[in-house]
Amino acid sequence: MRTSAPTVVVGVDGSKAAGDAARWAVDEAVGRDIPLRLVYVVESSHPVGAEVGAGGHATARSALRDAQRAVEATGKPVQVETEILTGKPLVVLVEESRAAAMICVGALGLNHAQHGVGSLAASLAASALCPVAVIRRAPGQPADHRVSRVVVEADNAALLRCAFDEARLRRAPLRALSVAASAGPDNADGKRLAQAELSRRIAPWARLYPDVPVESVVVRGTVEKYLAADGESDQLFVTDSRVCRELCGATNAKHSVLAFRFGNL
């Protein structure tokens, strides 16, 4: 297992979702000036590095070639590495996270039929030693996977910084959310106070990132419900791994998610 220079790792399994994740990850690697590492994990109960049958190798090589072609089709200058590994996908990818700057997976890839939609992605976000991006492309969404907006809940300064960094990288606007205390719809004073507090929280970051357009929105209920009701599907929600678990498991989820563990921020 490689533990030297950092890379952006993409979990590849031959699915369209994995190709989406690979294309999405290109900007992450280019922005950091590090290689993009495409990894195919052959499901096995044997230790990582064990011998894989010829059929397993052929399937893995084909999937990696498809993912590499998807990356090359972006036309962006990124160095690509590929490797076939064996073991349990979650265990292998967590081990990869020791040296990775980020791990990217497709929302419906990595044998989701066996493990349940989003379960591996959510478990990976909770266990990885680096940020985890779970990429979801809605039907009809362009293959270049441009991020229309970065969304973040503005109650954590570390997550705000990560969200502003991502918005700058993606040349996308940022929407900062705050959940208002439960109150009636006519509580105008409470809404004004919540909006003023939200504006105060994001003002220092807006000054540090003058190139990132920012808007602030006070929502009621939960951020998860707000996102579920939002009609735009090409947004990126920056959050922590606990929220990622719920979003990855939701069958009606529409957003890509970039998850951080608080201990790694």
TrEMBL record:
It comes from the Bacteria. InterPro entries: Rossmann-like_a/b/a_fold (IPR014729), Universal_stress_UspA (IPR006015), UspA (IPR006016). Gene3D superfamilies: HUPs. Residues 7-136 form the UspA domain. SUPFAM superfamilies: Adenine nucleotide alpha hydrolases-like. Belongs to the universal stress protein A family. This is Universal stress protein. It comes from Mycobacterium helveticum. The lineage of its organism: Bacteria, Bacillati, Actinomycetota, Actinomycetes, Mycobacteriales.
